[in-house]
């Protein structure tokens, strides 16, 4: 964190020197910097929009406004910050909220990568991404004085987007695992997930043990999810099952409906949503695994991780997170 602070100070100082050297008249220096971040964010959002909604509203309005907001006066936006920069280092470590705008990929914007195929955590409602994660992230952004932008990409691509610094964080009903901890840092956990098994009514699979004891089943999963990882390790690698990986959980469920797979292993809340949409499917009582959901950050990005964590803990403590969860899941 201190290193990042020092690097920031050095960068700011260089920017200030450069703008002084060019007598503030050189617009290309400023717009170059602005388009640099703009280019990154359009990279991030280019992967999205693929899914259902025709217009990727959550990404596009912010994406179109954000490249424009900095260019207004790039040199000027650098100068108010550069003088205090040298003195702001100690302040930074004490107060996470104030500098939040400057610890994100794009100043003032909190870019969250998700995979909006996962009701009730994130899903498209018309031209908007809604759900528990979307609303909790919105509340975090508000606390930090940032504007939330959501990029909808393949679940598979979220961790790479985070580690490459194309986005600030990954929030996608993402389970904390030891493997993922090798590549990202996680926030405090804000929800619990359970991997469950969906079958057709009357299926020979009646609990998790049948997958091992009877064996030979075709299992559908969403690619790169923990449902994929666990069944791959536990069953496929042991020659006990065949795993078919789909881009979306809904595709795996469709494969179950049409008889291409024998069951689907997926998180319990999306499972309930998918079963509600497809008569003839049931969720087995038995649990495949119980896990924690958290927000993923680039390794070592402690400034942002800590700022988000403070906000998230407050939102958990004051009941905001519970209120959002209840709105989507209800008491059942
Ligand atoms: N909890 C599971 C995991 O972390 C599945 C998450 C899938 N999320 C999504 N938005 N599609 O692997």
Brief summary:
This protein is α/β, with parallel strands linked by helices and 332 residues long. It folds into 2 domains: 2-190 and 294-329, Periplasmic binding protein-like II (D-Maltodextrin-Binding Protein, domain 2); 192-292, D-Maltodextrin-Binding Protein, domain 2. The chain contains 14 helices and 13 strands.
Please tell me about this protein's structure.
The chain has 332 residues and is α/β, with parallel strands linked by helices. The protein folds into two domains: 2-190 and 294-329, Periplasmic binding protein-like II (D-Maltodextrin-Binding Protein, domain 2); 192-292, Periplasmic binding protein-like II (D-Maltodextrin-Binding Protein, domain 2). It has a five-stranded mixed β-sheet, sandwiched between helices. The chain has helices at residues 2-21, 27-46, 59-65, 74-85, 88-94, 132-144, 155-163, 178-181, 208-213, 226-236, 249-257, 268-277, 302-317, 320-329; strands spanning 109-114, 117-118, 122-125, 128-130, 147-152, 169-170, 184-186, 191-200, 217-222, 241-246, 263-267, 281-293, 296-298. It has 14 helices and 13 strands. It is 46% helix and 21% strand. It is elongated and about 55 Å long. Arginine (ARG) is lined by residues 114-115, 117-118, 122, 155, 172-175, 193, 222, 225-226, 267.
Label the overall shape. elongated
Quickly count the helices.
14
Strand tally is: 13
Main sheet record: 5 strands, mixed
**Beta-strand level of the residues, as a percent range?**
15-25%
Query: Could you report the average pLDDT, rounded to the nearest whole number?
Result: 79
Bound molecules: arginine
- CATH uppermost class of the largest domain: Alpha Beta
């Amino acid at each position: 964190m201190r290193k990042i602070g020092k690097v920031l100070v050095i960068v700011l100082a260089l920017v200030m020197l450069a703008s002084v050297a060019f007598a503030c008249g050189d617009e290309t220096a400023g717009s170059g910097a602005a388009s640099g971040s703009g280019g990154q964010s359009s990279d991030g959002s280019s992967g999205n929009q693929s899914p259902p909604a025709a217009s990727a509203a959550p990404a596009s309005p912010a994406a179109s406004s954000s490249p424009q907001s900095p260019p207004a006066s790039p040199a000027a936006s650098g100068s108010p910050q550069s003088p205090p920069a040298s003195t702001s280092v100690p302040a930074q470590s004490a107060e996470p909220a104030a500098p939040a705008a400057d610890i994100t990929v794009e100043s003032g914007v909190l870019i969250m990568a998700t995979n909006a195929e996962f009701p009730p955590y994130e899903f498209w409602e018309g031209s908007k991404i809604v759900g528990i994660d979307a609303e909790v992230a919105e509340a975090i952004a508000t606390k930090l004085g940032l504007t939330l932008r959501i990029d909808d990409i393949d679940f598979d691509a979220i961790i790479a987007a985070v580690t490459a610094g194309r986005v600030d964080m990954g929030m996608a009903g993402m389970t904390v695992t030891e493997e993922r901890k090798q590549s990202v840092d996680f926030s405090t956990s804000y929800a619990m997930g359970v991997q469950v098994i969906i079958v057709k009514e009357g299926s020979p699979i009646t609990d998790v043990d049948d997958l091992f004891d009877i064996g030979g089943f075709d299992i559908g999963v969403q690619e790169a999810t923990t449902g994929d990882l666990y069944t791959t390790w536990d069953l496929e690698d042991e020659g006990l099952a065949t795993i078919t990986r789909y881009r979306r959980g809904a595709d795996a469920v469709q494969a179950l409906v049409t008889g291409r797979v024998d069951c689907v292993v997926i998180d319990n809340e999306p499972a309930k949503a998918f079963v509600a949409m497809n008569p003839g499917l049931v969720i087995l009582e038995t649990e495949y695994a119980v896990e924690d959901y958290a927000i993923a950050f680039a390794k070592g990005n402690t400034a942002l991780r800590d700022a988000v964590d403070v906000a998230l803990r407050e939102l958990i403590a004051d009941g905001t997170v519970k209120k959002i969860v209840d709105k989507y899941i209800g008491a059942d």
